[in-house]
């Protein structure tokens, strides 16, 4: 499932989480980011290999193109996403709130951009948790070099203006990382194209 390459952030150590062997990844500023389920590092966050449970929440397709500032598609880049489950809980040791984690949700996924710069994920529409508006974390790497870290938001979500990160962006910056959802016979999808300016 999906195309594979080296991780941007090498797993720091392993630990057991509700019977699933996981690796703890570390993102910028050494904040524990996600427990990466070793059974499956793919594009589908809504199903954990070996488990019957499927993820709760509204399943969506998140896709788009990664390009440079001149619009040239960038192939072979690793794009990683991570987010909370339907209950607003992260699958990492730093989230110690007394909430049950949705065992059918992987919490982390990756893809490798194809020759046209395209990526695609099957995940859930992000949910809100105290202090933050709904969002999906996104990181783009070339090998182990981090090119971009950002977050995707739901366009016109009522609490966006209250979010400490979203509210600091200009209107054009916010538009560039906002998800607009559409429905078709295959379900709900959103397209977010990403420009890597440092390329």
Brief synopsis:
The protein is built from one helix and 13 strands; from the N terminus they run E-E-E-E-E-E-E-E-E-H-E-E-E-E. It is mainly beta and 199 residues long.
Structure commentary:
By secondary structure, the protein is mainly beta. It has a single domain (13-196), classed as Aromatic compound dioxygenase (Protocatechuate 3,4-Dioxygenase, subunit A, Sandwich), CATH 2.60.130. Helices cover 3% and strands 40% of the residues. It is built from one helix and 13 strands; from the N terminus they run βββββββββαββββ. Strands 4, 7, 11, 12 and 13 form a five-stranded mixed sheet that branches. Strand 1 (13-17) and strand 2 (20-27) form a beta hairpin. It is globular. Mean pLDDT is 81; it is low at 1-7 and 9-40.
Number of domains: 1
Could you tell me the CATH topology label.
Protocatechuate 3,4-Dioxygenase, subunit A
Distance between the termini: 28 Å
Principal-axes geometry comes out as globular
Percent range of helical residues: under 10%
How much beta, percentage-wise?
A: 35-45%
User: Could you say which structural class the secondary elements and strand pairing correspond to?
Assistant: mainly beta
Q: What is the number of helices?
A: 1
- Summarize the biggest pleated sheet: 5 strands, mixed
Report the CATH C-level class: Mainly Beta
**Average of per-residue pLDDT values:** 81
What would CATH call the architecture?
Sandwich
Record keyword descriptors for this entry.
40% strand; mainly beta; five-stranded mixed sheet; 199 residues
């Amino acid at each position: 499932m999906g195309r594979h390459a080296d991780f941007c952030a090498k797993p720091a150590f392993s630990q057991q989480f509700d019977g699933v062997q996981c690796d703890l990844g570390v993102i910028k500023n050494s904040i524990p980011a996600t427990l990466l389920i070793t059974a499956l590092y793919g594009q589908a966050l809504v199903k954990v290999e070996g488990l019957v449970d499927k993820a709760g929440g509204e399943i969506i397709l998140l896709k788009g193109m990664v390009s440079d500032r001149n619009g040239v598609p960038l192939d072979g880049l690793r794009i990683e996403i991570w987010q909370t489950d339907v209950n607003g809980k992260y699958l990492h040791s730093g989230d110690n709130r007394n909430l049950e984690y949705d065992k059918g949700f992987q919490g982390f996924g990756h893809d490798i951009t194809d020759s046209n710069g395209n990526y695609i994920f099957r995940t859930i529409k992000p949910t809100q948790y105290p202090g933050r508006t709904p969002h999906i974390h996104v990181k783009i790497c070339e090998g182990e070099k981090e090119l971009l870290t950002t977050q995707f938001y739901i366009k016109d979500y009522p609490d966006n203006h209250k979010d400490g990160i979203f509210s600091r962006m200009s209107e054009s910056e916010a538009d560039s990382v906002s998800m607009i959802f559409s429905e078709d016979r295959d379900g709900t999808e959103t397209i977010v194209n990403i420009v890597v300016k440092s390329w």
